[in-house]
Specification:
Length: 129
């Protein structure tokens, strides 16, 4: 697991009282984004950015590594409290949440924002013989 070289960080010596950690866990990849209260991205990471390739990107270990890499920027006392929003049904959602809860950031709440269809789309017409 190699850490990525270039980091996209928008912190200029400031402390953030409250932020939002977004976790998007699909079956193929897990993306973790750390934002401030206004929604501006402070840091992000994904399993693919950490050099996990192919089917290993969808594993819980890859999600754990992505979450650890994303919150390592704000874990050094820069962000005090955060709320977590989890989207998706991938296998990495629990591992990412477990890693975030073990950090020094106090979690105010954890919300599942996975989109759920309310009866879905209309089915196609039946085939006539």
């Amino acid at each position: 697991m190699a850490l990525r070289k270039k980091r996209r960080i928008r912190l200029r010596g400031r402390t953030i009282s409250k932020g939002v950690i977004h976790v998007q866990a699909s079956f193929n990849n897990t993306i973790v984004t750390v934002t401030d209260a206004r929604g501006q991205v402070l840091s992000w990471s994904s399993a693919g950015a950490l050099q996990f390739k192919g089917p290993r990107k969808g594993t819980p270990f890859a999600a754990q590594a992505a979450a650890k890499d994303a919150i390592s920027v704000v874990d050094e006392g820069i962000m005090k409290r955060a709320e977590v929003k989890i989207k998706g049904a991938g296998s990495g959602r629990d591992a990412a949440l477990r890693t975030i809860s073990r950090s020094n950031i106090v979690l105010s709440f954890v919300r599942d924002i996975t989109p759920m269809p309310h009866n879905g789309c209309r089915p196609p017409k039946k085939r006539r013989l």
